[in-house]
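All the exercises in this workshop are built on plain-text protein records. Sequence and backbone structure share a record, each on its own labelled line. The question running through the whole workshop is how a given chain folds. The record below serves as our worked example for the rest of this section.
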Amino acid sequence: MRKPGRLACAWMHGREPSLKRRPATSPLSLASQEPAPCLAIWSGRTRVPSSVSSLVASWIRLARASFHHAAARASYGAMPSSEWMTTMAWMCTVPDRGGVSAPTTPAPHAETSPPPPLSGIRGASARMSTAERRTVAASPLWMWISTSVPGTRRVSTASTRLSGRTIVRARTVAPMACTSSPIPRHPNAWAARLVVSCALAAAHPADGQSLEPARIPGFSRPVQARWLGPEERRGGIPLGGLGTGFLELRPDGRVSALALDGAAAPTPPPACGIQATVGTESVTLLGTAPTRMRSRFFGHFPMADVEYGTRRGVAVCARAVGTLAPGDLERSGIPAVLFRVTVQCAADVPTRATLSLFLDGSAPPDGARSTLWQDGGRIGVLLAGGEGAPSLAAGMDAGGWGVQVRPNTALQGQIPRGRLEASATLRPGEERSVLFVIGWHPGARSPSRHARRFRDAAEAAARALRDGREIEVRAVAWQSGLYGRGLPDWLAEASLAAASLLTRNTVWPEGGAPRIRDSDLAASESLTARHHSAALFSALFASAHRQALDEIARTQAPDGGIPANHRDGAPPGRLASARFALLVWRARAEALYPAALRALRSAFAGPRGESGLITEPDGEAASEDGRPFGPWQWHGTAAWTAGMGLAALRAGEEMARAQGDSRLVAWCRQRFEAGRTAFDQDLWNGRWHRAYTDPDQFRDSESCLAGQLSGQEEAWLLGLGAIHGPGRIAASLRSIEALCMSAAKWGAVAAARPNGEPDLEAGQFSGDVLPGEVWNLAATAVLAARELADDSLRGMGLRAGERLWQGAAGAGELWSLNGCIGRDDARPYGAAHAASWLAVWNLVEALGGTAE
């Protein structure tokens, strides 16, 4: 006779664990030997203590639907990521004074009942009452049910952790009788059958549409993560260093592109991948071939975390880390990507696991040979076509693992040409990691710095392995600082996404400073791109940023003018000269103050220069002097250009004061005061500063420009004070909100007519959304809120930025970052990987943080 008071607990994920000796009609069964979270539940008459009844009632309804659905869809591959759950199920049976009989009918099962609609947890929630939904939403993620009823013994549980993710393995002490026999009566107790469903944090749906708290390895507090499933078709995150080229890793686990240096166009990579083998089953985790593993992906530059759940009793997760190490210029120049793969035995018995990295393919380089390389305890294979040719390398640091390396030096046609394997038998609960690396080298003909610094890809890979821990620690520390500033969650995500342009768009020539291109279509760095990236570049790599400014100063014309693009022979421009002065003052590059002041004199040497205004040159396309609005031709005095000039005069005044040049201080001050007056006289229409005006030629635009206060933003960010009156600043921002923001569903249009319609004078450059201008608008509004003591302006700025990012992220633009997006549909177009997105770091700075 079985003892009264039986309690059972099972952790449901894959096949682990199974309930031994259960009859076919068991009300509680793990219905499949396939690795599926399958559970069929019978929940009969339920009596719950009043203290928990309201909470449990909601969870019961949720559990029935989700578990019935899981049982009906007994194939792991058949369950979409939105319904993939790791679940803890409890079924408690204790004696009842009246006695209760268990049912004789088995629970619904996939073989006897048709699968329910693909509703899962969401469908269950939709059928709940409002009060029940509130109860579930307010309840803690973990529900611990324990009993102290006479005759009942507690469950023995073992909790383990896998890189910050809690995994619970539980087994019963007093096995529950899952039969159709009646439960014996007991004179002094009550009976209840209770099913509680708990979704583990690590297996939340990867819907890709929202941010949710997640505990990520290395971070001391939860971060807001956007989990993407393998069905996502978004562009990949570039992983590499500064000017080194990159590997592109997509949410579906595919390595989709390889660039050997910053100037090279990405190409399809050679066949490569990381595989995991448990028992006789092998699966690809990451690689050029699609993976069959269900997974979820969180890209947070310069890293990406991928979680795979449990496969045949082994839980797996991986982290890919680029070599861009904030604050460490030397390590950031290593052309490689690190992959830390972690496995943990979630079974009750020792389990054999093998992790492997393979590298194959004929390009690059064609006809490559695979040879062994070693560096202390690190080992790998090199694929090279000969001395001076491009090369690839794979390596690993697998301390504590059994290691096997198989280079194919004879080129006998075996595939792959290089494979690294690490094998170990894991004890129950044991966790181990292997650090893999893929490195590359562009060959001796490349002008890139890393082509001279490293002999071949093997040397680069070995250096990455030696410094791998420090690289990862620096990346985590930088991100932890960003997450810990109290920024809006969407802003932290947008900032990291934009920072990926430091890897994708940078070129680092031998003997020079890292340079950032305007987009993937640009061949060299422009002053505009340097200006957009200044907040981030100067914080992470201050010495490199100053070196880049020094290189720009060397291109200065005899009259002091600075070209908008100092690498393609462009002529000097007045706006470019003013922006150079702003860049030098931001960097506090005292050695360049004389050059910046000469540039400033050149900028105000043109027509109306003594009036303190930089006017638009006739016959010159706007893009030639570094304006952000492409071919939109302005005339006379333009709000954006003239405002930048006023901010530059204030910067010049401070630099002249630091140099002790009182005459130059007076020169800057006189032009600033005259320019501020002329600016309002020419452009103020009573509600905002019009886009441009040229009274001599009877040309003007009454449009409200979203970036009309960009000069004021620069002045505030650089500690130069106000360049416009406070009343006009506030009125202009209110007009931008009423016109530019109202004309766009996402962010703000570049310019709007007085009637609220988008200004289509220059097509997309005036009537759609330019991300860089929206970020600058948001920063301006936040700074104005502080300077004018008007918190409503802060809300306006954050709304503009949030709308822009939500539109871009919803359209799949997490890392493609196009230069324009549609005002109504957020459709990305224009040049991809536009450096203007880096202006988001101005908003971070405006909110009181820095990029450090």
Q: What stands out?
A: The longest helix spans residues 50-72.
